[in-house]
Amino acid sequence: MRIIKSDRRAITAAVSVLKKGGLIIYPTETLYGAGVDATNPSAVKKLSEYKSRPLGKPYSIAVSDKKMAQNYVFLNPTAENLYKKFLPGPLTVISKGKQKVAQGVESESGTLGIRIPDYKLVLDIVGVLGKPITATSANASYKKRPYSVSDVVNNISSRQKALIDLVIDAGTLPRRDPSSVVDTTLDEPVVLRQGAAEIFKKVGVLSRSEEDTMNVAKEIWQKYETHNGSRAIIFALQGEMGAGKTIFTKGLARAMGINELVTSPTFALENEYTGGNTTLHHFDAWRIENPQELLALGLKDLVADRRVVVIEWAERVSDVIHDFDAEAVVIWVNIKYGQAEKERHVDWGVNK
Amino acid sequence: MTILSIDTSCDETAAALTDNTTVLSNIVWSQAADHAKFGGVMPSLAKRMHEERIYWVIEKALLSAGKKVGDINAVAVTTGPGLSIALGVGVEKAKEMAKKANVPLIPINHVEAHLLSPLSQPKPKNRNNKSKTVSKFPAFGLVVSGGNTIFVLLNGVGSYKVLAETQDDALGEALDKAARMLGLGYPGGAIFEKMAAKGNLNAFSLPVPLLGQENRQIFSYSGLKTSFYRLIESQKAKDPNFPSKTDTYNLAATFQNAAFTHIERVVSHIIKTKESSAGDFYLGGGVAANVELRKRLRAICRKHGLTFRVPYIKRLCGDNAAMVGVCAFLNPKFIDPEKIDRDPNVKLL
């Protein structure tokens, strides 16, 4: 693993590594990314090993401009529109792929996410290489968002470190959210990740699987984890029976570094999970009739202790939760059934 | 060994007297009726009710067993898992009783107590030929209740290996929630069983959870809840009067069938793949009282040459204290009473 400064010479160094099928860690306008030549199958395999990602989860790619994008995807009017309005910038646009990238980059349904970063160094690297590179965050799945090189290297194993060929160090990046992700292959454009670019006024995403719902929980956690320790964080979950509130909590626990099995606390009313150096308190208000009863379970002390709390069926106890608006960061998450069996709409908002 | 046992892990205030594995008395005061007014549980009310009733329940347990405090050799109490503030009431009372009788205090895991509950016996005069006394280890054990769904290999008393457990809802909880979706109130498990018995299995269809994925060795009910919700909504969209009484029976039957088939498939898969000399199959927990579930599991046991054991009366299935006393006799852990505390999230090890 070689670490170099982010200057003109970095372009040549990066291109030569990428040409040989190597893996680079590079800065963008959002997070540090992990890049390999997206058309090189063995390089993509190496990346998957580095990310310790399950197979079947696709990668977005970074291109230098719209013309290059059109070599890899079909752009429909919705996509054209988004390109014009937002790119280059922190937005990933998903279109139908042309199967010109290595296997595993496009999704199983043949779609491909395109990103044109608003970051000259990356555009130059991709331009000189003449091929797209993968645009995935440099952290392993469910690990801390990487805003500095130490965020990357301190959170990976030595085996993962050995897979990195080159790191371009641009210091600590300003703390911005990852790119927003919009799927344009459906009848209506759908936001799959609400990140730095505000596409629609409302904050909400479409989940197509339990894994997606867990992923949304991770994204929300990573956005607000800076408050962890300084203020209590309350996730107030709302949604019908079977919508995926416990699944959401599983994703949250995983993002917090907790490996304990997360199950529904309906019967015992409260579960507690520990891992790393955090504890997650998991409440279920389904059986609670009088909202004040939540206080009998010790919520006040948990907030005073600045804990992380998740409450299922929060609408049943909303008055009590609002009492903590000043003291805690309260994130209201709403999970609604979508059209297809596995689809859910997840939206959220935070008390200010 | 005469043991006074106490369990206040959730909604039931319970005390019992046991002599070795023989149940002398088993008093359970359920709060379900009080909570039913509200349609849910009220933790502070639960705590207060436990406090108000624990004395009476213990007195009654002693009285109906014909014992005095001086006859007790040990006190046993559930320390977890359960509702924290409710557990606290039982633990404090148990400490007080142990001190008063000057006997050891034995902390008990509620899930282990359910697991060993089939080993409980009635008083000798009530025993019949069917009362089996000799247990054959290793044995399989399944605990299905409102808070737990866990399948275990017992290599002996105190030596357990978890073979499968729920990833989300417990079986009893899933049945309660399905009952609530049908507007049957809380807790709906018992009435749900009655309705399911009248229903037609072919009127609707629901997917069996994790069908074909039995080798993952997990239980899960979240997907079934989703399918049930979708089924009810789609029928409502077609017919504003849905569900009729018959529909409700049919829905209950369909849900229960899918939920039980899932248990059967996972359990069968594990029994088949486990190269084991297991002789017995224990079933415990509140849902163990369900006749249909017993019937299905008994059939599996017959097929695999296992002896099927359930508690000799239904009262030993739901939360109760006699199972805690029996567990304390079979697997006593003598610990300094000062160090005994509630442990709401404890796991079965």
Q: What is the secondary structure topology, with strand pairs?
A:
The complex is a heterodimer of chains A (352) and B (349).
Chain A: E1 2-5, H1 8-19, E2 24-27, E3 32-35, H2 41-51, E4 61-62, H3 66-69, E5 73-74, H4 77-86, E6 91-97, E7 111-115, H5 120-129, E8 133-134, E9 136-137, H6 149-153, H7 158-161, E10 166-169, E11 180-183, E12 190-193, E13 204-207, H8 210-224, E14 232-239, H9 245-255, E15 270-275, E16 278-284, H10 293-296, H11 299-304, E17 308-312, H12 318-322, E18 328-337, E19 344-350
Parallel strand pairs in A: 1-10, 2-10, 4-7, 6-11, 14-17, 14-18, 16-17
Antiparallel strand pairs in A: 2-3, 3-9, 4-8, 5-6, 6-7, 11-12, 13-19, 15-16, 18-19
Helix pairs in contact in A: 1-5, 8-9
Chain B: E1 2-7, E2 12-19, E3 22-30, H1 32-36, H2 43-65, E4 74-80, H3 84-101, E5 105-109, H4 110-116, E6 139-144, E7 149-156, E8 159-165, H5 171-181, H6 189-198, H7 222-238, H8 245-273, E9 280-284, H9 291-304, E10 307-309, H10 322-330
Parallel strand pairs in B: 1-4, 4-5, 6-9, 9-10
Antiparallel strand pairs in B: 1-2, 2-3, 6-7, 7-8
Helix pairs in contact in B: 2-3, 4-10, 5-7, 5-8, 6-8, 8-9
Description:
- The complex is a heterodimer of chains A (352) and B (349).
- With 352 residues, chain A is of the alpha/beta class.
- Chain A has two domains: 2-169, DHBP synthase; 202-350, P-loop containing nucleotide triphosphate hydrolases (Rossmann fold).
- Helix content of chain A is 28%, strand content 26%.
- Chain A is built from twelve helices and 19 strands.
- The longest helix of chain A has 15 residues, at 210-224.
- The radius of gyration of chain A is 21 Å and the shape is globular.
- The model of chain A has no long low-confidence stretch (mean pLDDT 91).
- Chain B is of the alpha/beta class and 349 residues long.
- Chain B has two domains: 2-128 and 316-339, ATPase, nucleotide binding domain (Nucleotidyltransferase, domain 5, 2-Layer Sandwich); 139-309, ATPase, nucleotide binding domain (Nucleotidyltransferase, domain 5, 2-Layer Sandwich), CATH 3.30.420.
- Chain B has helices at 32-36, 43-65, 84-101, 110-116, 171-181, 189-198, 222-238, 245-273, 291-304, 322-330; strands spanning 2-7, 12-19, 22-30, 74-80, 105-109, 139-144, 149-156, 159-165, 280-284, 307-309.
- In chain B, the strands form two sheets. Chain B has a five-stranded mixed beta sheet with strand order 3-2-1-4-5, sandwiched between helices. In chain B, strands 8-7-6-9-10 form a five-stranded mixed beta sheet.
- In chain B, strand 9 (280-284), helix 9 and strand 10 form a beta-alpha-beta unit.
- In chain B, helix 6 (189-198) crosses helix 8 (245-273).
- Classes of the chains: A alpha/beta (352), B alpha/beta (349).
